[in-house]
Amino acid sequence: MEQVQYRYRGLQIDLWFAQGRGRVKGSLHSFAQGHNRGLFTFSAVKAACEQLANDLALPAETLKVYKLEIGVNLKLDTSPASFLESLISHKRKPFWPKEPHDKEPRPLLFYAKYGDYKIKMYDKATYHRIQGEAIPKNSELLRFEVRYHRIRALLRPLRIALLTLKDLAEPKLLLRFSEILAVHWKHCKRREPKNFTGLTPRKCELLSAGDDQDLTAHLRQLKSVSWNTKRQCELNKLQIGSKRRRPPHPFDQIFQQTLLCMQGKAAEKNG
User: 137 and 225: one domain?
Assistant: First the structure.
């Protein structure tokens, strides 16, 4: 037999006996908890890594990671639909909506794509309801994740040459994952109410026009690099100032709270 495939606790295990190699694909979260809707704490990740290595009867340091998804589920009281539809860009990459599901009139997932990874946000609770799972309407979930389809994009900021299952169980590495998620969350730009207090009419117009990605792309073609750089610098300052003059979005606070819960530094809030 050239290849044998098994299903085990939500994982797909492929074995190539002639080549002496194997591959495990799937959600470590689902492997550990039977689903991937809840909170996956650092301690739970460590236990899951150890359990998987034990079940495979292989040392964890011999199991190399080639693709990885790191993310967080935000527990909400209200639908994330309007939040998702307000997404503009991640850094300079636009957020694109995924084609809506047949049972849904609007997109549930938005993504920004790079060569080595993809940023995704989606209405996780609605996805599970479509699959027939009984999730109450007041138990909404927003999924935020970074999916690395080339692990080199994650290895560079971690300053390591190789990632193994043993590494994934290390609290220090999981903390770095949290920090990476926080940085990517901060890079996500959304259409938000503007605070024009104290700004001149010209600056008000620039701040208002800053959300228009088509205009920005057109100006990059029309004007010089130095002109666009100067405009972007001024716009960044105006956006930061506007953000400081208004209260933070509730989801920003939930995101930070959830990261602390994953680390075991705060208790998860219900409802």
Answer: no
